[in-house]
């Protein structure tokens, strides 16, 4: 199980998928998963991307097989960006294409804005608006995590996440995967990262950017999504049919193919 000691308090687990021609110098795609997930969330994307690109799939600090975080850990977006930056430095990959889903898209937008020298292109898939007022919900969610566990929360909220077309056995797989998150990690992450305001970062994103959402996403209407997408200078919005807000999971083939096409065209222009 490959890991990297990216900071004194974090042993970061990651997976590299690389089926590119061994005689070719392949570019890299870094995939950032969302809240309550692990690198396993990208299983449907790997077959599409890994033949053309080296794919790096880390487990975010506190999640998956990376080191769990204590309840009082001082979470911040800059810490998460620093984790991923040091991982890629350790792997000897100074520039890469960045893809984020759900809260991974929030981290990815900040990464592109604050570390522009690293990011060739940015793709965010089913990601929240740059600012959300969740103060009233955080206390109830924390109480649920502490008393009933992460799996209970994942099960209760999964229908909107994956949409009405997702198969029941698939829903159960996602519930179990998310349910393995440490309660201590989830409590601190929810109270801080979910309520972060990244509005000022959007105009600072200089690389070509693709935003993917669905017609019925619970994270915001198409018009609301377009409003913040247009604040990113070199961005494009793609709207897919459906009612899931985690479209990277509900429609992985379509999203991955769209991302691959975007990277192939926009990446060449960016360089």
Describe the overall structure.
The protein is an alpha/beta fold and 271 residues long. It has one domain (3-270): Alpha/Beta hydrolase fold, catalytic domain (Rossmann fold), CATH 3.40.50.1820. 41% of the residues lie in helices and 18% in strands. It is built from ten helices and eight strands. It has helices at residues 46-49, 77-90, 103-114, 135-148, 150-162, 168-179, 183-192, 222-229, 247-250, 252-270; strands at residues 3-7, 10-17, 28-32, 54-58, 96-101, 119-125, 209-214, 235-240. The chain has an eight-stranded mixed beta sheet, with helices on both faces. Helix 3 links the parallel strand 5 (96-101) and strand 6 (119-125). The longest helix has 19 residues, at 252-270. The model has no long low-confidence stretch (mean pLDDT 95).
Structure in a nutshell:
By secondary structure, the chain is of the alpha/beta class. Helix content is 41%, strand content 18%. The protein has helices at residues 46-49, 77-90, 103-114, 135-148, 150-162, 168-179, 183-192, 222-229, 247-250, 252-270, and strands spanning 3-7, 10-17, 28-32, 54-58, 96-101, 119-125, 209-214, 235-240.
Tell me the β content.
Answer: 15-25%
The top-level CATH class is: Alpha Beta
CATH architecture: 3-Layer(aba) Sandwich
Q: In percent, how helical is the residue content?
A: 40-55%
Q: Please give the domain count.
A: 1
In the CATH hierarchy, the third-tier topology is known as Rossmann fold
The count of β-strands is: 8
CATH H-level superfamily: Alpha/Beta hydrolase fold, catalytic domain
What structural category arises from helix and sheet content?
A: alpha/beta
Low-confidence stretches: none
Strand order of the largest sheet: 1-2-4-3-5-6-7-8
Q: What would you report as the Rg, rounded to the nearest angstrom?
A: 17 Å
Q: Give the N-terminus to C-terminus distance in angstroms.
A: 34 Å
What's the average pLDDT?
Answer: 95
General shape: globular
């Amino acid at each position: 199980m490959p890991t990297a000691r990216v900071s004194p308090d974090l042993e970061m687990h990651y997976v590299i998928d690389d089926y590119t021609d061994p005689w070719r110098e392949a570019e890299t795609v870094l995939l950032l998963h969302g809240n309550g997930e692990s690198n396993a969330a990208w299983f449907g994307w790997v077959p599409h991307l890994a033949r053309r690109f080296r794919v790096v799939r880390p487990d975010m600090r506190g999640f998956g097989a990376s080191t769990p975080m204590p309840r009082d850990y001082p979470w911040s977006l800059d810490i998460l960006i620093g984790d991923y930056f040091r991982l890629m430095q350790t792997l000897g990959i100074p520039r890469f294409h960045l893809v984020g889903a759900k809260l991974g898209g929030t981290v990815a937008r900040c990464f592109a804005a604050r570390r522009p020298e690293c990011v060739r292109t940015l793709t965010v898939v089913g990601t929240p608006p740059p600012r959300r007022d969740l103060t009233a919900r955080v206390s109830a969610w924390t109480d649920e995590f502490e008393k009933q566990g992460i799996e209970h929360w994942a099960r209760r909220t999964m229908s909107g996440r994956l949409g009405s077309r997702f198969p029941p056995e698939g829903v159960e797989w996602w519930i179990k995967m998310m349910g393995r998150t440490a309660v201590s990690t989830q409590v601190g992450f929810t109270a801080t990262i979910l309520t972060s305001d990244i509005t000022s970062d959007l105009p600072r994103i200089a690389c070509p950017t693709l935003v993917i959402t669905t017609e019925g996403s619970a994270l915001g209407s198409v018009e609301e999504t377009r409003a913040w997408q247009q604040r990113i200078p070199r961005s494009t919005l793609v709207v897919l049919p459906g009612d899931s807000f985690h479209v990277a999971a509900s429609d992985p083939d379509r999203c991955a193919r769209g991302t691959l096409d975007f990277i192939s065209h926009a990446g060449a222009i960016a360089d």
